[in-house]
Amino acid sequence: MSAVTAPTFLRRYSLAMRHNLERYYGAGDLHFITCSCYRRQPLLATPRRRDLFLTVLEQTRRRYQFVVAGYVVMPEHIHLLISEPQIKTPSTVMQALKLGFARRVIAEAGRLGVPHFSRFSRSGPQHIWQKRFYDFNVWTEQKRIEKLRYMHRNPVKRGLAVSPELWRWSSFRAYFLGEAGPVRVNEWDVLKMKIRPPAA
Prior knowledge:
By secondary structure, the chain is α+β, with helices and mostly antiparallel strands. The protein contains six helices and four strands, in the order αβαββααβαα. It has a single domain (9-167), classed as 2-Layer Sandwich (Alpha-Beta Plaits). 38% of the residues lie in helices and 12% in strands. The chain has a four-stranded antiparallel beta sheet, with helices on both faces. A hairpin with a 3-residue loop joins β2 and β3 (77-82).
């Protein structure tokens, strides 16, 4: 499998997302979110694009006041582990995140005269992202750790890095090295005590 080929599980769950998709909000759970690029294209394959996505993620985090407990940006999809926001819902957060990133990508492509994106600008950001996203409620510490490990190991499993800390586009370095990256991780004070952080 090449570094930019979507794994089989992404194709499987995309079918499930189209039918009987339900969202469960309001319980104070963390949400493990997976979102794919349009038609599994590697639209996040370059460092510049991944950096841009993280910039937009941090802007969205500040705007809607939610906690990012973990993340990883892969060439054709992203994983997030986030709290429910103080403002709106995770669905609103994802809509804003996808739209904000797509607009930046399309505008940049237009300035550079990239033909691949010229026709997309007329029909909107759905041509950067798949329309739906996968959302799994995480309500136990065991599941939180499981999802973090999965995200942080993903680049290594895909052959994108030889160890998790060498992939700059994940939250692993925040946990392992205490590094302040482009996205603030575990900023629980933004929730104003709405839910409690996980036990140490």
